[in-house]
UniProtKB/TrEMBL annotation:
<dbReference type="Pfam" id="PF00249">
    <property type="entry name" value="Myb_DNA-binding"/>
</dbReference>
<keyword id="KW-0238">DNA-binding</keyword>
<keyword id="KW-0677">Repeat</keyword>
<feature type="domain" description="Myb-like">
    <location>
        <begin position="9"/>
        <end position="61"/>
    </location>
</feature>
<feature type="domain" description="HTH myb-type">
    <location>
        <begin position="9"/>
        <end position="65"/>
    </location>
</feature>
<feature type="domain" description="HTH myb-type">
    <location>
        <begin position="66"/>
        <end position="117"/>
    </location>
</feature>
<dbReference type="InterPro" id="IPR017930">
    <property type="entry name" value="Myb_dom"/>
</dbReference>
<dbReference type="InterPro" id="IPR009057">
    <property type="entry name" value="Homeodomain-like_sf"/>
</dbReference>
<feature type="region of interest" description="Disordered">
    <location>
        <begin position="191"/>
        <end position="214"/>
    </location>
</feature>
<dbReference type="GO" id="GO:0005634">
    <property type="term" value="C:nucleus"/>
</dbReference>
<dbReference type="GO" id="GO:0003677">
    <property type="term" value="F:DNA binding"/>
</dbReference>
<dbReference type="InterPro" id="IPR001005">
    <property type="entry name" value="SANT/Myb"/>
</dbReference>
<feature type="region of interest" description="Disordered">
    <location>
        <begin position="255"/>
        <end position="279"/>
    </location>
</feature>
<feature type="domain" description="Myb-like">
    <location>
        <begin position="62"/>
        <end position="113"/>
    </location>
</feature>
<feature type="compositionally biased region" description="Polar residues">
    <location>
        <begin position="255"/>
        <end position="272"/>
    </location>
</feature>
<keyword id="KW-0539">Nucleus</keyword>
<protein>
    <submittedName>
        <fullName>Uncharacterized protein</fullName>
    </submittedName>
</protein>
DNA sequence: AACTACGGCAACCGCTCTGTA
DNA sequence: TTACAGAGCGGTTGCCGTAGT
Protein backbone atom coordinates (compact mmCIF):
# COMPACT_ATOMS: atom_id res chain seq x y z
CA UNK A 1 0.00 0.00 0.00
CA UNK A 2 1.60 3.24 -1.10
CA UNK A 3 1.57 6.38 0.90
CA UNK A 4 -0.84 9.05 -0.01
CA UNK A 5 0.89 12.18 -1.26
CA UNK A 6 1.55 14.89 1.30
CA UNK A 7 -0.72 17.17 -0.66
CA UNK A 8 -2.72 17.25 -3.82
CA UNK A 9 -0.04 18.13 -6.36
CA UNK A 10 -2.38 18.89 -9.24
CA UNK A 11 -1.99 22.49 -10.22
CA UNK A 12 0.75 23.10 -7.71
CA UNK A 13 3.81 25.00 -8.81
CA UNK A 14 7.27 23.48 -8.70
CA UNK A 15 10.73 24.82 -9.28
CA UNK A 16 12.39 28.05 -8.23
CA UNK A 17 10.52 30.43 -6.00
CA UNK A 18 9.67 33.92 -7.18
CA UNK A 19 10.10 37.08 -5.13
CA UNK A 20 6.36 37.37 -4.88
CA UNK A 21 6.01 33.88 -3.46
CA UNK A 22 8.79 34.51 -0.98
CA UNK A 23 7.05 37.66 0.15
CA UNK A 24 3.71 35.92 0.62
CA UNK A 25 5.23 33.11 2.64
CA UNK A 26 7.38 35.40 4.76
CA UNK A 27 4.48 37.73 5.55
CA UNK A 28 2.21 34.87 6.47
CA UNK A 29 4.74 33.23 8.77
CA UNK A 30 5.67 36.54 10.38
CA UNK A 31 2.04 36.98 11.35
CA UNK A 32 0.95 33.43 12.11
CA UNK A 33 4.20 31.62 12.73
CA UNK A 34 5.36 28.39 11.10
CA UNK A 35 2.45 26.17 12.08
CA UNK A 36 0.83 23.45 10.02
CA UNK A 37 2.73 23.33 6.76
CA UNK A 38 -0.14 21.65 4.96
CA UNK A 39 -2.46 24.57 5.50
CA UNK A 40 0.07 27.35 5.08
CA UNK A 41 0.17 27.46 1.26
CA UNK A 42 -3.61 27.64 1.04
CA UNK A 43 -3.90 30.31 3.71
CA UNK A 44 -0.99 32.29 2.33
CA UNK A 45 -2.36 32.14 -1.21
CA UNK A 46 0.44 30.05 -2.62
CA UNK A 47 0.18 27.38 -5.30
CA UNK A 48 2.79 25.32 -3.55
CA UNK A 49 3.01 22.07 -1.63
CA UNK A 50 3.33 22.49 2.13
CA UNK A 51 6.52 20.58 2.02
CA UNK A 52 7.94 22.99 -0.52
CA UNK A 53 6.95 25.90 1.73
CA UNK A 54 8.64 24.37 4.73
CA UNK A 55 11.82 23.79 2.76
CA UNK A 56 11.82 27.29 1.36
CA UNK A 57 11.36 28.76 4.81
CA UNK A 58 13.87 26.63 6.67
CA UNK A 59 16.55 26.74 4.00
CA UNK A 60 16.23 30.27 2.68
CA UNK A 61 13.68 32.66 4.14
CA UNK A 62 14.24 32.13 7.86
CA UNK A 63 15.52 35.42 9.28
CA UNK A 64 18.27 33.84 11.39
CA UNK A 65 20.01 32.23 8.46
CA UNK A 66 23.61 33.26 8.06
CA UNK A 67 24.38 33.54 4.38
CA UNK A 68 27.73 33.66 2.67
CA UNK A 69 30.76 31.45 2.57
CA UNK A 70 31.78 29.17 5.38
CA UNK A 71 34.81 30.29 7.33
CA UNK A 72 37.68 27.85 7.11
CA UNK A 73 39.07 28.44 10.56
CA UNK A 74 35.85 28.00 12.46
CA UNK A 75 32.87 26.56 10.64
CA UNK A 76 34.70 24.26 8.26
CA UNK A 77 36.76 22.74 11.03
CA UNK A 78 33.67 22.30 13.19
CA UNK A 79 31.83 20.60 10.34
CA UNK A 80 34.69 18.18 9.78
CA UNK A 81 34.95 17.34 13.45
CA UNK A 82 31.22 16.89 13.84
CA UNK A 83 31.02 14.79 10.70
CA UNK A 84 33.74 12.49 12.01
CA UNK A 85 31.51 11.82 15.00
CA UNK A 86 27.99 12.15 13.61
CA UNK A 87 28.44 11.07 10.01
CA UNK A 88 25.88 12.35 7.50
CA UNK A 89 23.56 13.59 10.22
CA UNK A 90 23.30 16.99 8.59
CA UNK A 91 20.52 18.24 10.80
CA UNK A 92 22.50 17.30 13.90
CA UNK A 93 25.53 19.10 12.52
CA UNK A 94 23.43 22.11 11.57
CA UNK A 95 22.02 22.26 15.10
CA UNK A 96 25.54 23.00 16.32
CA UNK A 97 26.19 25.69 13.73
CA UNK A 98 23.90 28.64 14.36
CA UNK A 99 22.56 30.21 11.19
CA UNK A 100 23.45 27.32 8.93
CA UNK A 101 20.95 24.87 7.48
CA UNK A 102 21.36 21.17 7.05
CA UNK A 103 20.95 21.58 3.31
CA UNK A 104 23.63 24.25 3.18
CA UNK A 105 26.08 22.16 5.19
CA UNK A 106 25.32 19.08 3.13
CA UNK A 107 25.94 20.95 -0.12
CA UNK A 108 29.13 22.52 1.21
CA UNK A 109 30.37 19.15 2.35
CA UNK A 110 29.68 17.50 -0.98
CA UNK A 111 31.14 20.26 -3.11
CA UNK A 112 34.09 21.43 -1.04
CA UNK A 113 35.13 19.59 2.08
CA UNK A 114 34.79 16.10 0.69
CA UNK A 115 37.09 16.92 -2.21
CA UNK A 116 39.62 18.64 0.02
CA UNK A 117 39.77 15.73 2.41
CA UNK A 118 40.18 13.24 -0.39
CA UNK A 119 42.85 15.39 -2.00
CA UNK A 120 44.71 15.39 1.29
CA UNK A 121 44.64 11.63 1.53
CA UNK A 122 41.78 11.37 3.97
CA UNK A 123 38.74 9.24 3.41
CA UNK A 124 35.78 11.63 3.72
CA UNK A 125 33.52 8.86 4.97
CA UNK A 126 35.67 7.41 7.74
CA UNK A 127 38.01 10.39 8.25
CA UNK A 128 40.86 7.91 8.15
CA UNK A 129 44.04 8.13 6.11
CA UNK A 130 43.30 6.97 2.60
CA UNK A 131 46.40 5.15 1.37
CA UNK A 132 47.38 3.73 -1.99
CA UNK A 133 48.47 0.12 -1.96
CA UNK A 134 50.83 0.77 -4.82
CA UNK A 135 52.99 2.60 -2.32
CA UNK A 136 52.77 0.24 0.59
CA UNK A 137 56.15 1.30 1.87
CA UNK A 138 54.45 4.54 2.80
CA UNK A 139 52.25 2.62 5.18
CA UNK A 140 55.20 0.87 6.72
CA UNK A 141 57.36 3.94 7.08
CA UNK A 142 54.52 6.11 8.28
CA UNK A 143 53.08 3.73 10.77
CA UNK A 144 55.93 1.39 11.56
CA UNK A 145 53.18 -1.06 10.98
CA UNK A 146 53.73 -4.58 12.21
CA UNK A 147 52.49 -6.39 9.16
CA UNK A 148 53.41 -9.80 10.47
CA UNK A 149 50.73 -9.42 13.12
CA UNK A 150 48.35 -8.07 10.53
CA UNK A 151 48.88 -11.13 8.41
CA UNK A 152 48.22 -13.55 11.23
CA UNK A 153 44.98 -11.76 11.90
CA UNK A 154 43.88 -11.51 8.33
CA UNK A 155 43.98 -15.24 7.85
CA UNK A 156 41.32 -15.60 10.48
CA UNK A 157 38.92 -13.64 8.42
CA UNK A 158 38.85 -15.04 4.98
CA UNK A 159 41.09 -17.47 3.15
CA UNK A 160 41.00 -15.13 0.21
CA UNK A 161 42.95 -12.67 2.28
CA UNK A 162 45.90 -14.88 1.47
CA UNK A 163 45.76 -13.36 -1.96
CA UNK A 164 46.00 -9.96 -0.40
CA UNK A 165 48.95 -11.11 1.66
CA UNK A 166 50.77 -12.10 -1.47
CA UNK A 167 49.93 -8.78 -3.03
CA UNK A 168 51.15 -6.89 0.01
CA UNK A 169 54.37 -8.83 0.17
CA UNK A 170 55.06 -8.49 -3.52
CA UNK A 171 54.68 -4.76 -3.30
CA UNK A 172 57.43 -4.51 -0.74
CA UNK A 173 60.78 -3.42 -2.01
CA UNK A 174 62.68 -5.01 0.84
CA UNK A 175 63.20 -8.69 0.14
CA UNK A 176 63.89 -9.49 3.78
CA UNK A 177 60.54 -8.05 4.74
CA UNK A 178 58.85 -10.03 2.02
CA UNK A 179 60.23 -13.28 3.34
CA UNK A 180 59.41 -12.40 6.91
CA UNK A 181 55.82 -11.58 6.02
CA UNK A 182 55.22 -14.68 3.98
CA UNK A 183 56.88 -16.95 6.55
CA UNK A 184 54.77 -15.48 9.26
CA UNK A 185 51.70 -15.91 7.13
CA UNK A 186 52.49 -19.58 6.49
CA UNK A 187 53.15 -20.19 10.20
CA UNK A 188 49.84 -18.66 11.07
CA UNK A 189 48.00 -20.79 8.55
CA UNK A 190 49.49 -23.86 10.26
CA UNK A 191 48.33 -22.77 13.69
CA UNK A 192 45.23 -24.15 15.37
CA UNK A 193 42.24 -21.82 15.78
CA UNK A 194 43.06 -21.52 19.48
CA UNK A 195 46.56 -20.38 18.73
CA UNK A 196 45.24 -17.86 16.27
CA UNK A 197 42.88 -16.56 18.89
CA UNK A 198 45.79 -16.20 21.27
CA UNK A 199 47.54 -14.12 18.67
CA UNK A 200 44.59 -11.81 18.68
CA UNK A 201 44.57 -11.56 22.44
CA UNK A 202 48.23 -10.75 22.53
CA UNK A 203 47.43 -7.87 20.23
CA UNK A 204 44.58 -6.69 22.45
CA UNK A 205 42.02 -7.60 19.85
CA UNK A 206 38.96 -9.74 19.91
CA UNK A 207 39.01 -12.71 17.59
CA UNK A 208 36.68 -12.34 14.65
CA UNK A 209 33.17 -13.26 15.59
CA UNK A 210 30.81 -15.06 13.26
CA UNK A 211 29.04 -11.89 12.29
CA UNK A 212 31.87 -10.00 10.66
CA UNK A 213 33.17 -13.23 9.19
CA UNK A 214 29.85 -13.79 7.52
CA UNK A 215 29.86 -10.23 6.40
CA UNK A 216 33.27 -10.57 4.89
CA UNK A 217 32.36 -13.74 3.08
CA UNK A 218 29.05 -12.41 1.91
CA UNK A 219 30.71 -9.42 0.41
CA UNK A 220 33.30 -11.50 -1.30
CA UNK A 221 30.71 -13.79 -2.79
CA UNK A 222 29.29 -10.84 -4.64
CA UNK A 223 32.68 -9.87 -5.93
CA UNK A 224 32.50 -6.75 -3.86
CA UNK A 225 35.58 -5.38 -2.11
CA UNK A 226 37.31 -7.66 0.33
CA UNK A 227 37.09 -6.98 4.01
CA UNK A 228 39.91 -7.26 6.44
CA UNK A 229 40.60 -6.38 10.01
CA UNK A 230 42.97 -3.72 11.08
CA UNK A 231 45.18 -3.80 14.10
CA UNK A 232 43.38 -1.01 15.73
CA UNK A 233 42.61 -0.77 19.38
CA UNK A 234 39.53 1.26 20.19
CA UNK A 235 39.43 2.74 23.61
CA UNK A 236 35.64 2.57 23.61
CA UNK A 237 35.66 -1.17 23.01
CA UNK A 238 34.13 -0.76 19.60
CA UNK A 239 32.83 -4.08 18.37
CA UNK A 240 34.89 -5.89 15.85
CA UNK A 241 32.23 -5.40 13.25
CA UNK A 242 32.96 -1.71 13.35
CA UNK A 243 36.58 -2.39 12.67
CA UNK A 244 35.75 -4.03 9.38
CA UNK A 245 36.70 -1.77 6.57
CA UNK A 246 36.07 -2.24 2.88
CA UNK A 247 39.05 -2.90 0.75
CA UNK A 248 38.04 -0.79 -2.14
CA UNK A 249 38.24 -1.52 -5.82
CA UNK A 250 40.46 1.43 -6.53
CA UNK A 251 43.49 -0.37 -5.20
CA UNK A 252 43.51 1.54 -1.96
CA UNK A 253 43.03 0.77 1.68
CA UNK A 254 41.16 2.84 4.19
CA UNK A 255 42.12 2.65 7.81
CA UNK A 256 39.16 3.02 10.12
CA UNK A 257 38.94 5.94 12.45
CA UNK A 258 35.82 6.05 14.50
CA UNK A 259 37.11 8.57 16.93
CA UNK A 260 39.25 11.66 16.52
CA UNK A 261 42.24 9.83 17.95
CA UNK A 262 43.12 6.19 17.53
CA UNK A 263 46.17 4.04 17.98
CA UNK A 264 47.35 0.70 16.74
CA UNK A 265 48.09 -1.54 19.63
CA UNK A 266 50.25 -3.81 17.53
CA UNK A 267 53.13 -1.45 17.17
CA UNK A 268 52.64 0.82 20.19
CA UNK A 269 54.39 3.41 18.08
CA UNK A 270 51.57 4.31 15.75
CA UNK A 271 49.45 7.14 16.94
CA UNK A 272 47.18 9.16 14.72
CA UNK A 273 45.62 12.33 15.80
CA UNK A 274 42.84 13.52 13.54
CA UNK A 275 44.48 13.68 10.14
CA UNK A 276 45.74 17.05 9.06
CA UNK A 277 43.61 19.19 6.91
CA UNK A 278 45.38 21.51 4.55
CA UNK A 279 44.02 23.96 2.04
C1' DA B 1 31.73 35.26 -29.90
C1' DA B 2 29.98 30.72 -29.45
C1' DC B 3 30.06 26.44 -27.47
C1' DT B 4 31.06 23.02 -23.87
C1' DA B 5 32.18 21.30 -19.37
C1' DC B 6 32.01 21.82 -14.76
C1' DG B 7 30.81 23.35 -10.04
C1' DG B 8 27.63 25.21 -6.73
C1' DC B 9 23.36 25.41 -4.87
C1' DA B 10 18.25 25.42 -4.48
C1' DA B 11 14.67 22.42 -4.68
C1' DC B 12 12.50 17.96 -5.06
C1' DC B 13 11.75 13.01 -3.94
C1' DG B 14 11.00 9.32 -1.17
C1' DC B 15 11.76 7.23 3.05
C1' DT B 16 11.57 7.27 8.19
C1' DC B 17 10.07 8.96 12.49
C1' DT B 18 6.62 10.65 15.64
C1' DG B 19 2.26 11.86 17.43
C1' DT B 20 -2.54 10.90 17.65
C1' DA B 21 -7.09 8.92 17.17
C1' DT C 1 -2.31 -2.18 18.81
C1' DT C 2 -2.82 -0.31 14.45
C1' DA C 3 -3.40 2.97 10.85
C1' DC C 4 -2.77 7.32 9.30
C1' DA C 5 -1.16 12.15 8.74
C1' DG C 6 2.30 15.47 9.39
C1' DA C 7 6.94 16.66 9.83
C1' DG C 8 11.77 15.85 9.30
C1' DC C 9 15.74 14.04 7.10
C1' DG C 10 19.21 12.51 3.69
C1' DG C 11 20.04 11.59 -1.10
C1' DT C 12 19.52 13.14 -5.67
C1' DT C 13 18.39 16.09 -9.48
C1' DG C 14 18.46 19.89 -12.42
C1' DC C 15 19.17 24.72 -13.25
C1' DC C 16 22.29 28.47 -13.68
C1' DG C 17 26.56 30.90 -13.67
C1' DT C 18 31.32 30.71 -14.88
C1' DA C 19 35.65 29.09 -16.62
C1' DG C 20 37.94 27.01 -20.37
C1' DT C 21 38.54 26.11 -25.32
Amino acid sequence: MGRSPCCDKTGLKKGPWTQEEDLKLTKYIQIHGPGSWRTIPKNAGLQRCGKSCRLRWTNYLRPDIKRGRFSFEEEEEIIIQLHSVLGNKWSAIAARLPGRTDNEIKNYWNTNIRKKLFHNGIDPVTHAPHLDLSDLSTILNLAQFNLSNLLSLQTLVNPDVSKLVTLLASSLSNQENQEMLLNNHINTMNQSPNQQTQNCNSMHLSPPSSQPLDKANAVHENDEPYFFYHLVNFSDQTSLENVVTPFSNDNSVTLPNHSPQFTTQASENLSFSRPGFEV
